Amino acid sequence: MERALVLAPHTDDGEFGCGGTINKLVNEGVEVYYVAFSACEQSVLPQFPSDILITEVKAATNVLGIKPQNLILKDYEVRTFNYRRQDILDDMIKLRSEINPDIIFMPALTDIHQDHKTVAEEGLRAFKFRSILSYEMPWNNISFQTACFYKLSDENIDIKIEALKQYQSQAHRPYSSEHFIKSLATVRGTQISTKYAETFEVVRWIH
User: Fold this and answer.
1) Is 90 exceeded by the pLDDT of residue 50?
2) DSSP annotation string for 139-207
3) What pLDDT digit, counting tens, does each position of 88-107 carry?
4) Phi, psi (5° rounding) for residue 32?
5) What pLDDT is recorded for position 32?
6) If pLDDT is split at 50, 70 and 90, which confidence band does 172 have?
7) Beta carbons of 5 and 101 less than 8 angstroms apart
8) Of 22, 74, 99, 205, which shows the fewest CB atoms inside 10 Å?
9) Rg of the chain, C-alpha, whole Å
């Protein structure tokens, strides 16, 4: 594997879903690209600048080890992705051509958030001839097939937590807590007899 592409509907989705795996891949020499389709300016709490998530995603992805030039930011309005399907698909096809990724990380096709579901569905259309793994977001997943696991080190988890700490504007969310993040990684690690892991649904696996 040489190039991985993370599809994040909103800034921070990639960190929550596969932040430990991102750090592991970077450490293994994989060129990781991250595209966030919205900085959610319409839903930022009033005490923060409306563009705060742009600052935060730059800091968070830097913590994970992603090169600044590999962070791609789009400006779709939150909760309107289903009205912009063709534009999002066109963006992905352009990314496919420019980056030529070997593997795609994206939300689950069954994710109940409308923006996440749109990114997953258009991601499958754009990258159907590449390996695709869907990352876990338990608060949006009614069901999730834990078919693929990435073993993670203490360092991978610590860096994932540190990356998510950059999102001060999202610290009020229950799933932002360090306890939850480490607990979920522990549960997934227990499933494969290791300390920590992240799990993925296999949409496509091409080897």
Assistant:
1) no
2) TT-SS----EEEEE-HHHHHHHHHHHHT-GGGTTSGGGSHHHHHHHHHHHHHHTTSSEEEEEEEEE---
3) 999 999 999 999 999 999 99
4) -105, 130
5) 98
6) confident
7) yes
8) 205
9) 16
Domain count for the chain: 1
Q: Is 30 exposed, middle or buried (0-12, 13-18, 19+ CB in 10 A)?
A: middle
pTM, two decimals, is: 0.96
CATH number of the domain bearing residue 59: 3.40.50.10320
**Structural domain of 62:** 3-204
> DSSP per residue over 92-137, as a string?
HHHHHHHH--SEEEEE-TT--SHHHHHHHHHHHHHTTTSEEEEEP-
Assign residue 193 a region (left: φ > 0; alpha: ψ between -120 and 50; beta: otherwise).
left
Average of per-residue pLDDT across 50-55:
90
